[in-house]
User: Which sequence fits this backbone?
């Protein structure tokens, strides 16, 4: 894939719940900001939204709430497109080097086709104002379709240090074809790994990359520091770059995050 002028490069995270993909999304924001590869737009597209907590910002409204209100609260004389675009721009949380928007809970009963279409159009327009777009996804990656994100530069597929986690990661990676998404690279990261990786796990990881189009990014060891930060509700942006988890994550990002001119 090639850099498209005036359009953000899309970097997406995917993985089953509990693998730490939101943690890695926060570390990816930290990486891009520290390397001055800004501005960055982060989208929390996981129904269990907590990327804002790891980034140390508060959320006042979600895109899901705006989408719900659009159906009943659009005032006379304003189109639904205008209503959605105005409120989505108001929902953007602006920070130094990065902005954040939160998708929120999935749709309730009723048809949301129009709202999702408008949402996709607004995101497409927003991408022209940023260098990178980071999407923290749910495992099924349905939000990629809702946002009409058809071109992903790097998809980081995050597994935990288990056979089931690696198997799930391979299944998630295969979903991109059925969604019609073009991906430059699919990178497998095994997170929360023990210091000494068991041979059986390492063998399964090698087989997963040999049999699929996944590229192995690396192991990231279980981090007591990250655990402490999350328990104390401290933003991961405050982690020292000298910490093991940051160094390892940054080494992976150095290899698989292309520099956007």
Assistant:
């Amino acid at each position: 894939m090639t850099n498209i002028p005036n359009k953000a490069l899309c970097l997406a995270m995917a993985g089953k719940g509990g693998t730490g993909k939101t943690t890695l999304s926060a570390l990816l924001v930290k990486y891009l900001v520290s390397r001055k590869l800004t501005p960055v737009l982060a989208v929390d597209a996981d129904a269990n939204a907590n990327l804002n907590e790891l980034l140390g910002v508060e959320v006042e409204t979600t895109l899901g709430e705006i989408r719900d209100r659009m159906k009943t609260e659009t005032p006379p004389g304003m189109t639904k497109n205008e209503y959605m675009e105005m409120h989505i721009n108001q929902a953007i949380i602006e920070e130094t080097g990065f902005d954040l928007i939160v998708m929120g809970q999935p749709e309730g009963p009723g048809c949301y086709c129009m709202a999702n279409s408008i949402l996709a159009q607004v995101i497409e327009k927003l991408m022209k104002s940023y260098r990178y777009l980071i999407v923290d996804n749910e495992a099924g990656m349905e939000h990629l379709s809702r946002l009409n994100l058809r071109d992903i530069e790097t998809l980081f597929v995050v597994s935990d240090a288990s056979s089931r986690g690696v198997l799930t990661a391979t299944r998630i990676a295969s979903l991109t074809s059925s969604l019609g998404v073009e991906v430059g690279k699919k990178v497998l990261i095994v997170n929360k790994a023990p210091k000494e990786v068991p041979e059986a796990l390492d063998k399964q990881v090698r087989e997963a990359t040999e049999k699929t189009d996944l590229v192995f990014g690396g192991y990231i060891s279980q981090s007591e520091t990250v655990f402490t930060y999350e328990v104390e509700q401290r933003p991961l942006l405050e982690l020292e770059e000298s910490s093991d988890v940051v160094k390892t994550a940054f080494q992976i990002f150095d290899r698989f995050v292309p520099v956007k001119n």
